[in-house]
């Protein structure tokens, strides 16, 4: 069985405007534009993002078509209701404090061809099985969220009750991370901001401690989540992309090791996985090899853990969660006795 037991220590460019410079269009403005104009400095409004600059944004060559699309979207009901967002924010706040653990899993890219009742059932069943392992084996309440369009919308929905997730690599300077956190969560609300680390085991051991210390020194509350998938993608001899199970497990081990060292809370895990018996990631208890990749390689983007590998990873995570809880109780009781 896989284990996450501690291992032995081991050109920027100037931002450009969100929209191309165009002459103002006469006529009625959208509610978002009007709210953006009316909002004061630092106040949120549906269009206040227009006052910001961005490094990555699509160009909209036809302002009239853009405004028409905005008006259409304004007339639609919300994709996510406020009550759902508030509930998730509360639960992510528990994870930030070490009182819950986020299990986020699913496909990197979903296709209409594979969008069937059987596939949905298999992945949903796997998520429930993993949650049971984490909840009872790890003795930790588990927040179950799929990598679906619905969940992504919650993370992207802008507004006063919105939540954000920042994916960070080893290349991000800790001071820049602090600035991002302060911009996205100016009121420092627990559960509003999730930081997803993706940098490989070796970089994790070196870079993550500095990020945690910078965030803590700034007094910020964030939910730390590990994405051990994207930093461990390699090319197989046959040319297919794959991910070694051992490398994924090593990054998760490093994630827990660093948080244990820093006295912070590992808040969750982000896995690209499927309930299908695919052969896309090598390794695991069933020892998928490079030669096996072509048997059932069905991903439309990045390689996923199959059901067996995902459950094996869940047991390894549960072991670390249980050990963390046992140490917490031991330390608490020792202080009570003293």
UniProtKB/TrEMBL annotation:
<keyword id="KW-0812">Transmembrane</keyword>
<protein>
    <recommendedName>
        <fullName>Phospho-2-dehydro-3-deoxyheptonate aldolase</fullName>
        <ecNumber>2.5.1.54</ecNumber>
    </recommendedName>
</protein>
<dbReference type="InterPro" id="IPR002480">
    <property type="entry name" value="DAHP_synth_2"/>
</dbReference>
<keyword id="KW-0057">Aromatic amino acid biosynthesis</keyword>
<keyword id="KW-0150">Chloroplast</keyword>
<dbReference type="GO" id="GO:0009507">
    <property type="term" value="C:chloroplast"/>
</dbReference>
<keyword id="KW-0808">Transferase</keyword>
<feature type="transmembrane region" description="Helical">
    <location>
        <begin position="147"/>
        <end position="166"/>
    </location>
</feature>
<feature type="region of interest" description="Disordered">
    <location>
        <begin position="1"/>
        <end position="48"/>
    </location>
</feature>
<keyword id="KW-0028">Amino-acid biosynthesis</keyword>
<dbReference type="GO" id="GO:0009073">
    <property type="term" value="P:aromatic amino acid family biosynthetic process"/>
</dbReference>
<comment type="pathway">
    <text>Metabolic intermediate biosynthesis; chorismate biosynthesis; chorismate from D-erythrose 4-phosphate and phosphoenolpyruvate: step 1/7.</text>
</comment>
<dbReference type="InterPro" id="IPR013785">
    <property type="entry name" value="Aldolase_TIM"/>
</dbReference>
<keyword id="KW-0472">Membrane</keyword>
<feature type="compositionally biased region" description="Pro residues">
    <location>
        <begin position="8"/>
        <end position="18"/>
    </location>
</feature>
<dbReference type="GO" id="GO:0003849">
    <property type="term" value="F:3-deoxy-7-phosphoheptulonate synthase activity"/>
</dbReference>
<feature type="compositionally biased region" description="Low complexity">
    <location>
        <begin position="29"/>
        <end position="42"/>
    </location>
</feature>
<comment type="similarity">
    <text>Belongs to the class-II DAHP synthase family.</text>
</comment>
<keyword id="KW-0934">Plastid</keyword>
<dbReference type="GO" id="GO:0009423">
    <property type="term" value="P:chorismate biosynthetic process"/>
</dbReference>
<keyword id="KW-0809">Transit peptide</keyword>
<dbReference type="Pfam" id="PF01474">
    <property type="entry name" value="DAHP_synth_2"/>
</dbReference>
<keyword id="KW-1133">Transmembrane helix</keyword>
<dbReference type="GO" id="GO:0008652">
    <property type="term" value="P:amino acid biosynthetic process"/>
</dbReference>
């Amino acid at each position: 069985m896989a284990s996450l037991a501690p291992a032995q220590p081991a050109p920027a460019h100037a931002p450009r405007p969100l929209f191309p410079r165009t002459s103002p269009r006469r006529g009625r403005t959208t509610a978002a534009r009007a709210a953006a104009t009316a909002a004061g400095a630092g106040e949120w409004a549906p269009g206040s993002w227009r006052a910001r600059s961005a490094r990555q944004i699509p160009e909209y060559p036809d302002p009239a078509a853009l405004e028409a699309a905005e008006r259409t979207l304004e007339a639609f009901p919300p994709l996510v209701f406020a009550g759902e967002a508030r509930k998730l924010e509360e639960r992510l706040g528990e994870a930030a404090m070490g009182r819950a653990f986020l299990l986020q899993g699913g496909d990197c890219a979903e296709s209409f061809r594979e969008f069937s009742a059987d596939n949905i059932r298999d992945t949903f069943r796997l998520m429930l099985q993993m949650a049971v392992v984490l909840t009872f084996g790890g003795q930790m309440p588990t927040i179950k969220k799929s990598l679906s369009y619905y969940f992504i919308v919650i993370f992207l929905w802008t507004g006063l009750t919105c939540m954000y997730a920042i994916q960070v690599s080893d290349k991000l300077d800790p001071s820049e991370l602090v600035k991002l956190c302060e911009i996205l969560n100016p009121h420092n609300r627990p559960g509003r901001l999730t930081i997803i680390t993706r940098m490989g085991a070796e970089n994790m051991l070196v870079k993550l401690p500095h990020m945690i210390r910078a965030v803590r020194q700034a007094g910020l509350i964030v939910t730390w989540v590990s994405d051990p998938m994207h930093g461990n993608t390699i090319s197989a001899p046959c040319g297919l992309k794959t991910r070694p199970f051992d490398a994924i497990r090593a990054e998760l081990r490093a994630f827990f090791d660093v948080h244990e060292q820093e006295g912070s809370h590992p808040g969750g895990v982000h896995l690209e996985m499927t309930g299908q018996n695919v052969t896309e990631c090598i390794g695991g208890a069933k020892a998928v090899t490079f030669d096996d990749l072509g048997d059932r390689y069905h991903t439309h983007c990045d390689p996923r853990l199959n059901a067996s590998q995902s459950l094996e990873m869940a047991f390894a995570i549960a072991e670390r969660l249980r050990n963390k809880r046992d140490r917490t109780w031991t330390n608490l009781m020792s202080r009570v006795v003293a």
